[in-house]
Fold this protein.
Amino acid sequence: MTGRTRCCEVAQPVTSFALFLLRRLLGIAILVWAVTLAAFGLFRVGVPSPATDAQINAQLGPGEPASWQYLHYLLRLLHGNLGETLTVGLSVNTLLWRALPPTLSLMIGGMILWLTAGIVAGMVSALRPGSWTDKVVTGAAVAALIIPTFLLALVLLALSTYLTRTGHLWVQTGYVPITQNPGQWLGRMILPWIAIAAAQAGVTAKLTRAVVLDIVGENYIRTAYAKGLDSQRVFWIHVLRPAIIPVIASIGAGFGIMLGSAAIIDQVFALNGIGQALLTAVKQGDLMVVMGAVLVAVILISLVNLIADVCQAVLDPRVHVTLCCSVTHIDYDVVMSKRAATPVRFDPPVADRLASFVAANPGMSLSSAANRLVDEALRMAEHPGIIFRSGPTGRRAALAGGPDVWEVIRAIKSAHLAEPGLNGNDLVSLVSSNTGIALRLVNTAVRYWAAYPSEVDAEIAAADAAEEAAEQAWLRERQLLAG
């Protein structure tokens, strides 16, 4: 491989990722324009408001059509000017800049609490299914989903008031900048974080529990345990990472819901954030503040969704960010990666064994033999205790140190016909005692049959047909000897 080829291979994903970011940022710009258009039309063309009309005429041109006034607003927006509030001498830029730190403190701390509590609770619940821990965590998650955010905020506000009256002044309402007093900042943000994160923590806990339960039942997890890996290694390496991926995919929607709840939390705990400024502006009909607050919210939600998509592409090797273009439209997506086929080279000992296998199975090509052996290896990894041996009808699954799988399954079917009242466990125990095969091996045969029923049933049918043909031949021979 030449140096130029390596550079091209490195530059290609970088270029694709840069194009992806460019298109996402372009999509955010289009979304911002659509939101400003909707907000301006709602206040300017919708329900008439004397205060709003006076503000628009004073700042965007008196007597001008609504379309020209909107274009004037866009031109000012491109220069970073969000306009003036109804309060004389206070710009929207200044108002939102003052309200941004409380909102960022609320959202960042709330997200950390939401994801930490939700993921840990879901993991603990899934690793102990059916236990009291599972029941308590599941009940708490459901309660967090049922209780409205405003009701939980009011309950926590009452708790804050009670603590203040009893002399515990650390937990209070209002906002103190972290640069001014980190201790007071933390004390005043704890209850708002709990209020805003509770519902999403419940959603994440239930999602994590469901995902972990699905993962621990996968074949590769059973294979990891069969190889002797300890539980902690299996959890941290093989369970945690794939369980986090669906949670990351849900962050975008969860952040949008949290940002909508931030207005209630701001108002209840008097944080003076963007949500509280938005509610006040809506009551007063202050169009410029409403549009500025909505723009900040849209940009924050879009950036969080972008970061979540990038993190998902980094953590999940099956997913990569691609750019899909056509002549008539431009679109982006996160799609499943399809890798091109590459030639496989075998070591000399493996190649010799593969050649011997082909010689022992006439009519099988080298590629067919390789596919067959890889498939058998994967099946043996999925079902410890299964081996494959050659026979008159070709390769077939068998129990290590025991009979073929189809023989065990046929014995179970015969026992079921003889004792139709027995359940599955009793049938397995009966076959194990009658044949002398270990109970775990009989269960292994049953699991293999459940995974590949058509293959095992075909082998049983072939054996039955061969036995019937042999019996018919013996009867004909006996008749000839008798005649």
Summary: Confidence is low (pLDDT under 50) at residues 1-11, 321-342.
